[in-house]
Specification:
- This protein is an all-alpha fold.
- The chain has one domain.
- It contains 7 helices and no strands.
- Helix 2 crosses helix 3.
Length: about 130
C-alpha cells in the first residue's frame, strides 16, 4: 500500500482502517489491532498490521486526551463517537509501539527508505503520550 510520509496516518493501510473503524468499529477493533502484534510479535507481522497497530495505539492515547496534532479528521470523528477513555489499553499500546520500534518489518522499511529518523521521532512522541 502507498505511503506519503513516516507519520502514523500517512499511508493507505492506516487510513483504510480508520474509514472502516468509522463505519463499524468500536474500541474492540482497536484492541484487536493491538492484540495481533502483541500475540504474534512485531517481527512476525506484516507492515500493514504494524501500521494499523500504531494507529490503534495513537487512538488509545487520544481517547485519554493525549491527542496527536496530526490526527486526521476521520479519526477525530471516531473519537467523538466513542467518547470514553481507554486507560485499560494504555500499557498494551505502549508495549506494542515499543515492539514495533525495536523489531518489525516496518522499522526495516523506514531504515531502507531513509525516513527512519522521522519515523522514530513519531513513535517516540507517541510513547510519551502513552506513558502512564
Amino acid at each position: 500500500m502507498a505511503d506519503w510520509g513516516p507519520g502514523i496516518y500517512e499511508n493507505d493501510d492506516t487510513m483504510d482502517w480508520i474509514y472502516d473503524l468509522l463505519d463499524s468499529g468500536g474500541i474492540s477493533r482497536v484492541k484487536r489491532a493491538l492484540d495481533i502484534v502483541e500475540e504474534e510479535g512485531a517481527e512476525d507481522v506484516d507492515i500493514a498490521d504494524c501500521r494499523i497497530a500504531l494507529a490503534a495505539a495513537d487512538l488509545v492515547a487520544a481517547l485519554d486526551g493525549d491527542i496527536d496534532p496530526n490526527l486526521p479528521t476521520e479519526a477525530e470523528e471516531w473519537l467523538t463517537l466513542i467518547n470514553k477513555p481507554a486507560s485499560n489499553l494504555r500499557a498494551k499500546a505502549e508495549e506494542v509501539v515499543r515492539d514495533i520500534l525495536e523489531s518489525s518489518p516496518l522499522k526495516v522499511y523506514y531504515k531502507t527508505n531513509g525516513k527512519f529518523p522521522e519515523w522514530k521521532q513519531t513513535l517516540e512522541s507517541l510513547l510519551k503520550r502513552l506513558e502512564l
